[in-house]
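Page 47, continued from p. 46.
Same chain as before, 272 aa.
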Amino acid sequence: MPRRARSLAESGVYHIMVRGVNRDAIFLEDEDYHRYLRALAQAKLASGCRVLAYCLMSNHAHLLLRTGHESLGNAMRRVGVRYSGWFNHKYDRVGHLFQDRYLSRPVDTDAYLLTLVPYIWHNPVKSQLVRQAVDYPWNSCWSGGSPAGLVDDSELDALVPALARAELAAPVLELSLQQQRPRGRPARHSPEQVAELIARSCAAHGPVDFGLLDSVTQRRVVRELRMRSVSYDSIAAATGLHPSKVRRMQAGRVAGEWGDDSGLQNRHDQSA
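Result:
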């Protein structure tokens, strides 16, 4: 069956979403996040695209880009090929890293843009990783960033009034990091399967044994389980750890799952 043609934006601005195959993690360490942003910066230089906003979560990423002299497809291909090749080499894996093609949605109205920017920035807040978007290190909402000059702030300022942009960055949701939001997806692995995977990886049989392991081993096991698409909740149940701690252990700082963008999906074309 032929692929559907992508919708084109008259503005040249697109909301891009990429995620790991089978919802697997695509970022496991701080170095991985830095490497993806470096690949994005290199693609920007080669393609002439503009980076208006981004947010990198553990198994997906949101980008807000404006196309340059190259097509959006060429720009994203540069990022994907460079990063996936590096990631596979680092973690000694083979095969596709990203699920299918990236998703893209044209941004042709101010109303959509004003909805989209805070949605991207507040993904880690919705995932209960931080209380404010500016506290998340892999998010263009904060004033820092690496590499320098990646985000075209002046271009975003030209699209969004200054006052409105300041309001977009303000906290919109205060959540306790201990509060767990309900999960809508069924578990991909049974408790018995998760327990068997843990036993094979570290010879721990149950939460008590796992709790006696050193932190380095625990973190390694959590990463291995995530690479096999085991959910955070399933890992928590099998190890006795709190789900929020499992998320933080994966990357040593913060991590997250594929955000729930159903609100946006219901209002805009889902074609890719």
